[in-house]
């Protein structure tokens, strides 16, 4: 069963692949290229403006958060000191807990690879505690940090 080339003609379009385009074609291609390049520049400039606005918003939010923390520390200096001391103590607990976690992984890694149950048990045992401990430690560290340290981090 052979197909007549006339039956296939609507499926294909003519594409000029000659290496020497006519001056008219060159002019059209040049205009189209220039238009596309101008549009790309416009879009890049818009993107740069949006990124700048986003950055300004983030800086504003960070400055506001820092000011609120500093105001809280000034209003509660003794509590801020207690938070600092608690963060230092909890940091030691955190390090010990991470050591226990690392030892557990070292001892049972091969078994956890082979057993979905052991892996799930490990995650259930250590996951929530380490997540909550990290959150509490971060909060205490932020509340107990000296005002000067917060300004240098901003």
Number of strands: 0
Given the C-alpha coordinates, what overall shape results?
Answer: flat
Summed over residues and divided by their number, the pLDDT gives a mean of 86
Secondary structure tally, helices = 5
Largest sheet geometry? none
Structural class: mainly alpha
Radius of gyration: 32 Å
H/E series:
HHHHH
Helix content: over 70%
Uncertain regions: pLDDT < 50 for 5+ in a row?
Answer: none
Query: How many angstroms does the end-to-end distance come to?
Result: 76 Å
Share of β-strand residues: under 5%
Please describe the structure with a list of short key phrases separated by commas or semicolons.
154 residues; mainly alpha; 5 helices
Structure description:
This protein is an all-alpha fold and 154 residues long. The chain contains five helices and no strands. It has helices at 5-8, 23-75, 77-114, 116-144, 147-153. Helix 2 (23-75) packs across helix 3 and helix 3 packs antiparallel against helix 4 (116-144). It is flat, with a radius of gyration of 32 Å.
